[in-house]
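--- STAGE predict ---
source: upstream dedup step, 1 unique chain passed
mode: sequence only
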Amino acid sequence: MKGNYEALIHPRIMVMRIIVIALFLGVVAFAGVASMLHFTKEPPRNPPAAGAPAQPDGELPIVGYLGVFALAMAVAVRFFLPQIMTPALGPPGSIFAGDAAVEESMVVERLIAFYQTQLIILAAMTEGAAFMLLVSLQAFDTTWTLPIAGFAMLWLFSYFPSYDGLVSWLDDQVLMWRMRKE
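--- STAGE serialize ---
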């Protein structure tokens, strides 16, 4: 570790971890309820005729399709949101560029706040997609949404922040800030 950020990181990383775990456990709990309701319900008394579609005409599982779209958006946003939000990567007019009066500890505090904001945005987008997929399973009997929701839950848990990862990211950002400052 190049920088000494322990006092700044420890309280924030605990909050970030609690947020990710809470979002993840909420989806896991709802997945259990939705799966139990889906797989334990009685078959319809008047099943559709052979060859008839499972969904009545005109009733598309739109929530499932929206869930897949929302998950695709969450995956795509993960790759470009950090470049948009991180001030050290921003244009020369960004909030840190050329500001000689800003102390490094203040820069680190701002960067940690940006990191936390990114994490919350990305995790919430993924959680929303997972919930839409599970609601589709429950409301429209779309079993195909369950494995996609499982992928969304794994993707959500991938946001669990590590101390070393955050320190490494901060070291890179502070180095870029120092180079811009000079």
